[in-house]
Task: structure prediction
Amino acid sequence: MTLREKYQHLRARTEAICQGLEAEDFVVQPIGDVSPPKWHLGHTTWFFETFVLLPHAPGYAVFNAQYNYVFNSYYETVGARVVRTDRGNLSRPTVADVRRYRAYVDDAMGVFLTTEQAFSSALRELLILGLNHEEQHQELLITDIKYILGHNPLLPMYPTHYDKPAVPDVAAGQWVSVPEGVYEIGATGQEDFCFDNELGRHKVYLPAYQLQRELVSNAEYLAFIEAGGYADFRYWHAAGWEWVKAQGIQAPLYWHQLAGQWHYYTPEGLAPLSLGQPVCHLSYYEAWAYAQWRGLRLLTEAEWEVAAPLLNWGSRWEWTESAYLPYPGFTKAESAIGEYNGKFMVDQLVLRGASEATTPGHSRPTYRNFFQAPARWQFTGLRLARYN
Amino acid sequence: MTLREKYQHLRARTEAICQGLEAEDFVVQPIGDVSPPKWHLGHTTWFFETFVLLPHAPGYAVFNAQYNYVFNSYYETVGARVVRTDRGNLSRPTVADVRRYRAYVDDAMGVFLTTEQAFSSALRELLILGLNHEEQHQELLITDIKYILGHNPLLPMYPTHYDKPAVPDVAAGQWVSVPEGVYEIGATGQEDFCFDNELGRHKVYLPAYQLQRELVSNAEYLAFIEAGGYADFRYWHAAGWEWVKAQGIQAPLYWHQLAGQWHYYTPEGLAPLSLGQPVCHLSYYEAWAYAQWRGLRLLTEAEWEVAAPLLNWGSRWEWTESAYLPYPGFTKAESAIGEYNGKFMVDQLVLRGASEATTPGHSRPTYRNFFQAPARWQFTGLRLARYN
Amino acid sequence: MTLREKYQHLRARTEAICQGLEAEDFVVQPIGDVSPPKWHLGHTTWFFETFVLLPHAPGYAVFNAQYNYVFNSYYETVGARVVRTDRGNLSRPTVADVRRYRAYVDDAMGVFLTTEQAFSSALRELLILGLNHEEQHQELLITDIKYILGHNPLLPMYPTHYDKPAVPDVAAGQWVSVPEGVYEIGATGQEDFCFDNELGRHKVYLPAYQLQRELVSNAEYLAFIEAGGYADFRYWHAAGWEWVKAQGIQAPLYWHQLAGQWHYYTPEGLAPLSLGQPVCHLSYYEAWAYAQWRGLRLLTEAEWEVAAPLLNWGSRWEWTESAYLPYPGFTKAESAIGEYNGKFMVDQLVLRGASEATTPGHSRPTYRNFFQAPARWQFTGLRLARYN
Amino acid sequence: MTLREKYQHLRARTEAICQGLEAEDFVVQPIGDVSPPKWHLGHTTWFFETFVLLPHAPGYAVFNAQYNYVFNSYYETVGARVVRTDRGNLSRPTVADVRRYRAYVDDAMGVFLTTEQAFSSALRELLILGLNHEEQHQELLITDIKYILGHNPLLPMYPTHYDKPAVPDVAAGQWVSVPEGVYEIGATGQEDFCFDNELGRHKVYLPAYQLQRELVSNAEYLAFIEAGGYADFRYWHAAGWEWVKAQGIQAPLYWHQLAGQWHYYTPEGLAPLSLGQPVCHLSYYEAWAYAQWRGLRLLTEAEWEVAAPLLNWGSRWEWTESAYLPYPGFTKAESAIGEYNGKFMVDQLVLRGASEATTPGHSRPTYRNFFQAPARWQFTGLRLARYN
Result:
């Protein structure tokens, strides 16, 4: 596929994700972590306009000079911006405005990408970064839409028009053993693409360990709830225990108990909890507490990456017990793009794998996702490990 | 006019106020005081459904049982409700849903009101309360829409499709003298309509005083700004001075200084400040500080009411220095309607008059509006007074 | 008594109030409203140093120039100061330092006051203001010490070394009737002393009303608790109801239920609740809710003042339903002293009477005390009224 | 030395640290991280009473049963406790009470420790843990006292009566090289003592790297300030940049600019900044930003431990870029002591080394200290590293 075809295919998928929404669904921001869908639509467009068209497409005229203020996410290099938690206070630009913006930039990109043959490798890399950036926002769109509608008191159903995968049930537990040794993890830079935070393939020493081929299931997690796990401080980090008490947490996000029966919210509405499915929407605190209760532990990111070929993965992002830190030799790009990853490397945990909401082909064994410990609006689950 | 005609005329005006909005404008709630326009549309409808149709229209079937949770404002009697500050997190019901709700209730009301002849006087009073309630929300719609769009970084223009009055410039200052005496204020209960907080016509003693026939103008208020009024604690309440410093207040709401020139935001967008217009969008703190600076004072609500026939009033709600307290003999109704006014009689100031956003015919000399001291998203101004 | 005798007598009483404390008790500030006792000791001394000695006593040398920053309460005119809520973070100056400061200023005042004959009337007024100011802080010392020790988990007893009056039990209820009429309230300026907020004797019209000769008793208030008054929103202001729910309020401050029996904290420690005593340590919300439950009301401050000669008053400050507003013609002094009262005239309620903690002779029928609606660490109670 | 001698020596040193304080200095808690000195005195005593005397000394009678509530720090196993941020609201128990408590427990311990010969090894380990625990609180006492007095507006001097080491100036920069390899870190369990978080000696692979023999000096850090480092977002984590802006940070803690000259607060009061001393009182954000500005990096904890014999260390805790995570095979003790370390292993950074405030002999190369990224009231500095 040409870059132009990839671009158009990707941009169409983004719109498909939003296709079933009402205009009002594009606007709200019930918590700071969740952005309004129209903000995602505008921001990904702004990314191509700001970092590709403006510096590289001669004669490109900005669609609306004020949009830089509205759609810049966190790039200090590029100027002032709407405070993150105010994104849900903006009714303008409207969804129709944002679609016009997308069409305008897509037209310009369509023309620009016909000259692909003349692109420098740096420009080609930048474009591929832009595509991967939009793929990340596709997943955020899916999770944010679920949050917006899943926290509406009407708990509405909503159609999904994208290639949403079926999630297989978890099979019977099976342990995979990995022998002690020095292994290599991280990306080499020879891949089609990777983010800067994956680069710097490097050696790590791992002791012998075992990990489960499968994720933890709803049935397994339910046993923790029924054993009183949310009421026993011994399984929790001090910060996790404060979180449980302050927020009144008693189950994963989107679990609802109706007439003594657990239900789970999906685009099809509330449905009885499917026990065989991998447990989802856990915070790091919950994943860790569950492992404590089992007398087992979470993986490190290196353990995960080394064993990745042997695992069933892809329906849930897996909390690891690794903090999100730079790999040896990590350096940030000089330009605004240097703000992409590095400046977040504090107080976050690495998640590995991929989820049912991840754009197909987006993730890979070296991929490093990261969130703060209390986050659970992503499709997050866990896998258990132990030492020999 | 029959009640049915009044109802239909009023409901149509509410829709006219919103006619120029985009769907997205109906959804957001940038501050707790401001409700999303679709919430106002639903809430006023819910008021008729809950207090009129359900108890009085035989066989009336509720449109959607979940709407009670969504559209109840503050009636504890009627059950649980969305936390006020979460109104802007709800994308559903959509604007179209709310319009269907309005149409459904309007149809039922249309039929019900054909039986007006059979109504008890209590039911008639309730209906007129419902109409006045919706008039109050018409003003809130106008102020909330202004806030939503006036705080959008794009500062958009927007069409207004309702009977918006022209506000005359303020004429030269002129003092009105009122002699000492015992006067009566408050409603007698013989009026066509009044709120319960106006009832209990009662005597008050007033010393001789003087007050200005006209409101304070932008030109006059600008002199206060230019004299450094916002930087001199001596003119402010202690709480007002904290507010000025904490919020960085330097001018009334919607004033913007561009290239050294003051502008003011209106539905026509930003325009140079019109010096002859009455100053607008002041907090109580600002109104009081201005009066201090002038060596004058605000009115009490009794002084205002006694002098009302002699004043030019109607374009700005006027902050008085009267706290919002019950009149002698005030009692709350036993039912949910008893929650309408009485429970707010603490920590609020009375405003008298009416504003350019008030529904024509809604206010009267005995009318008691009330807000907290820092509020300034209403069309609020001031009038000066002094003792002889 | 000469001014010098009055001064010395008063200052000695302040020290007597603190005599039973440990050094540590002088330091803490468990809530913003409560100041550390050593701050009161320093602040009242600073008042005499700053407003009397420095401008009027030739050659007076400041004890420590940094104390102005530490002991200024709220006088913007006099410069920067420690943030109020940080008073409890200061271990220095120590109690011994503060006592040295007091001794130093007392010595200087002792000398200065020997020249009383030469004082201008303005200076004499200022001195009397200083004495009354310290009397106010005597009451605050008593209430703040009670709060500090009454919120310590050890609930310690503590000796009181000042002239603490016995509070008589409340007698059987008796109604006093006041006929309709125009009355005068406020101070004339011919009194020995009054605060600026009492000045401007003025006429008020009062309808006929009745009020109770006695305060509400613990027994009466307990009936409200036992009737579920704290769980029924109908008796509460909206703001009061939020306060009850957010704070989990179920009884007046210092009430503790042990083994099904109500106790009350005093300097003698926890004791079984004395049913005949006037109820104490209520917020305005609670006083108002109680009156609502009884189908009665609180007094206005004018009603209280007119009837004062007929009432038993003095053991509890009585919440009135009057907001704290300026009297007709109120003006602030030009100097720093002008900040004493006027700038607080917003969002506060007037309390009338006096309490068991008030310095004997400090209050009078025209006296206007004021606090915010949720405050209950003062000795606050209520009296009931009704219209004829 | 016998355990008894060690105990008595240690307890005496704790008192020496506090010897120069006024009673008031023992009481306050200006920020949540800082505990009142008398709380430290009581808490370390409570630790011996609760975990040693009560379960192991037959017939021991608790000094005061209410002290468990007052002096429990974070042991959920042992019951309810004063909210951490309320420690500074407690005037009782007084300093004298706490000293009586110490004397009482010291007497009982003195008797108990004469039976050392009969102790099980588990009991002996518990006692040594208690000693190390008190050593940790000795350092906290030193840092908390500095904070309490260093944030008092009087900036008082205070005597120190303990063995306070002189801190040598930093020598000229010198790089130490460590070759690539698999190394071992962590404690073996054969040491005289270590904390549970050090246990599990395990292999790590390290690439070749270089690190500075010396800490970064004040002179070097000052160059960062003067180059505008606090005003340039490029050097900061996103969270660090928010912190700098929200708190208005412009220099390390305890740096004061007077008349254009930098000063530093010490027990001798404010003194001109000594340029040769190692920089101190940095947050992790600042340490990381400084390294970014230099084009270098912080160490990992494994890199530090492997190189420890080659380094000058001991005057500043050194921020590493390692998150505080469990070592392979880490398990918590079953009892309350299991709450000592493990439950804090999230959102904290490891610091290595020791500081001028660390009890002599307390630290060792395997020691893992940990704090949150914004903390800077400890004696924290940094060392630079780079890859070959």
